[in-house]
Design brief:
Layout: E1 26-31, E2 38-39, H1 44-49, E3 61-62, H2 65-84, E4 88-90, E5 101-102, E6 107-108, E7 121-124, E8 127-130, H3 146-155, E9 160-163, H4 185-193, E10 211-214, E11 217-221, H5 228-237, E12 242-246, E13 261-265, E14 268-271, H6 279-287, E15 291-294, E16 318-321, E17 324-328, H7 332-340, E18 344-348, E19 364-369
Parallel strand pairs: 1-4, 8-9, 11-12, 14-15, 17-18
Antiparallel strand pairs: 1-19, 2-3, 5-6, 7-8, 10-11, 13-14, 16-17
Bound molecules: delta-amino valeric acid.
Length: about 375
């Protein structure tokens, strides 16, 4: 592959925020917290993601305290593991998620949590952008990160703190087709292939976890949580970047790209074998000599109880640098595969926290990775 590198910025001693890729050496990261996390009440975008036979259907409220304590124990240990490697780790400040949310356009009886900062914060170069989000219960989640973002803003004169326009999230944002509880998987797959997702094109919507950063290029999944207007908004907001929309027709519940398509290092991406990148989207990678490898099978047949995510959190790894990757400790097949691919694998226990919003990639957000804006697809 080509190794063209375009220096666009010069880090200084006061640089706190800067990250251009998913794999450059990690220096500073936010790790989420499980405190007070709630299963939110029914709402259109969230219901579309919960399978018909899920144990979460019909129930909502604060998660059991033992599960919160256990998840926090694992998140704290993960934070310590990262600190022991010299990485600066910050933690969010949870708000009271039992509080209802009411805006002029919608109301919901409780909120969600702040375990997965990756969904909310998109770091591109020296900017951290708060995503619009697409669930009503997550509308105020950015508040948990404001104390950190304010601090970075004071410490780093080049840090740009941005927020995408808050969406109105009226019923016009959601397709009523998805409101039925008995949609077959075959129907869902047909809809996914036709790019008929639960969110409409009423206004720009995106979750930060639908975006992957490849230096000058941003790869964004079009699915339940990010619509085409959201992708167009990102394109206009980052005029120096090339923004590529992708979708994965094999996924009946397409939210977030980070259990589907996982860059490991320049030239190597893992792809979920049930959600292969379609041929028309592969050209960019193939022309530039990137290898797209089917990820190993997950070690588990089912997600843990009360979990939104699929078993493919096995692929939701956190790359520490192009030779080192954190893999969930029970995901032995994924660990073996990455070891065979030449990576040093750091096992991290996190499965009992999956229910709070995802895996190792989800529960973190980049503040700094050492590197510059490089062009990997010249
Ligand atoms: O496979 O359920 C999970 C992504 C979480 N950020 C899945 C996608």
């Amino acid at each position: 592959m080509a190794d063209a590198a375009t220096e666009t910025t010069q880090a200084t001693e006061t640089t706190v925020v800067e990250s251009w890729t998913e794999w450059d050496p990690l220096a500073h990261v936010i790790v989420g917290r499980a405190d007070d996390c709630h299963i939110p009440p029914a709402e259109p975008a969230l219901d579309a993601k919960v399978p018909a036979d899920s144990d979460m259907r019909g129930q909502w409220g604060r998660r059991p305290q033992e599960s919160i304590d256990r998840a926090n124990e694992l998140l704290d240990r993960f934070a310590d593991q990262l600190r022991a490697r010299g990485i600066r780790v910050d933690r969010p400040t949870p708000i009271d998620f039992s509080e209802p949310v009411r805006t002029p356009d919608f109301e919901t009886a409780s909120q969600f949590g702040c375990m997965p900062p990756r969904d909310v914060l998109l770091t591109v170069g020296r900017e951290i952008l708060e995503a619009t989000m697409s669930y009503r219960c997550r509308w105020f989640e950015y508040l948990c990160y404001r104390p950190l973002l304010q601090r970075y803003w004071e410490e780093d004169p080049n840090f740009r703190h941005e927020a995408a326009p808050k969406p109105r999230l009226t019923d016009a944002d959601y397709r009523p087709d998805y409101l039925s509880e008995s949609i077959s998987i075959a129907q869902r797959l047909d809809w996914a292939a036709a790019k008929h997702f639960v969110t409409t094109e009423e206004e720009p919507l995106f979750d930060a976890a639908d975006v992957l950063r490849f230096g000058r290029d941003l790869v964004v999944q079009h699915g339940f949580t990010t619509n085409l207007k959201g992708i167009e908004w990102l394109r206009r907001h980052f005029p120096e970047h090339r923004v590529h929309a992708v979708n994965f027709p094999g996924d009946p519940y397409p939210i977030h790209i980070d259990a589907t398509f996982t860059p490991i290092r320049p030239g190597l991406i893992l792809n979920n074998p049930q959600r292969r990148l379609p041929a028309e989207c592969r050209g960019l990678f193939e022309r530039n000599g990137w290898e797209i490898v089917d990820a190993a099978q997950p070690a588990h047949n089912t997600p843990p109880p009360l979990c939104y995510s699929s078993v493919w959190l096995s692929m939701n790894v956190l790359v520490l640098d192009p030779k080192t990757v954190c893999v969930e400790a029970s995901e032995v097949y994924q660990a073996e595969q990455l070891d065979r691919l030449g990576m040093e694998v750091v096992p991290v226990e996190l499965r009992d926290a999956y229910a709070f919003g995802g895996g190792l990639h989800c529960c973190t957000a980049d503040v700094r990775r050492i590197g510059s804006c490089t062009d990997h697809f010249p």
